[in-house]
Design a protein that fits this description.
This protein is mainly α. It has 9 helices and no strands. The N terminus is likely disordered.
Length: 207
């Protein structure tokens, strides 16, 4: 990934509550959250191996929805972030395809997340000739996600991290302050607790 070092790419989740989604997909999301935020080592690898199989099932289903495609991409991109290096690029490329396919479905519950996810990918993956990363596209996707209504802790932290990486402390501060107004999601407490911890570190980087 970025500089071919190990970078955890935790992709932004839709503004819509998980409670509105199918039971099967809710279980995938719950299992991803545990794998991504609470496990490490062999246990994490085994969990992601199972999740990658489910990602393939999500994208290949005849009735695959935008939400299915979004989460197939989230699994692929998260795994890419965990393994890092050149081996991650194939998973990052698959995630990009999944997010682009999710966007084409034009689901308002998914569009902000898919845009922000593409922004994160483009900001983390190396550029040409190694990968497809592109800072201009990353910035464009983040801006479009914000305009489309992305407003959860995932989005604010990922966009703030990107702004800090580009030295834009003013934008980072505005995103961190906006995130203070967002209550943790009752169905995503593991994720949002991790995001709140990240926020403290980003405030420190502003000084």
């Amino acid at each position: 990934m970025n500089g071919l070092v190990r970078v955890i790419v935790v992709i932004v989740f839709s503004c819509a509550s998980v409670l509105a989604w199918s039971e099967d997909l809710k279980q995938v999301i719950a299992d991803w959250e545990i794998a991504n935020f609470t496990l490490d080592g062999d246990a994490q690898k085994q969990a992601f191996d199972a999740l990658l199989e489910r990602a393939e099932a999500l994208r290949s289903a005849p009735t695959a929805t935008a939400k299915n495609l979004l989460w197939a991409g989230i699994i692929e991109s998260s795994y890419a972030g965990e393994i890092g290096g050149l081996n991650a690029l194939g998973h990052a490329k698959q995630a990009k395809k999944d997010f682009e396919s999710a966007l084409k479905a034009d689901d308002p519950d998914v569009t902000p997340a898919a845009l922000a996810s593409l922004g994160t990918l483009h900001s983390k993956v190396p550029g040409w000739p190694i990968g497809f990363g592109n800072d201009k596209k990353a910035s464009k996707f983040f801006e479009e996600a914000e305009q489309a209504g992305a407003a959860n802790l995932d989005f604010y932290m990922l966009y703030a991290e990107y702004a800090l990486s580009k030295g834009d402390k003013e934008k980072a501060l505005s995103l961190l302050q906006a995130s203070e107004k967002v209550a943790p999601r009752s169905d995503r407490l593991i994720t949002d607790s991790a995001r709140i911890a990240e926020r403290a570190t980003y405030y420190e980087r502003l000084n």
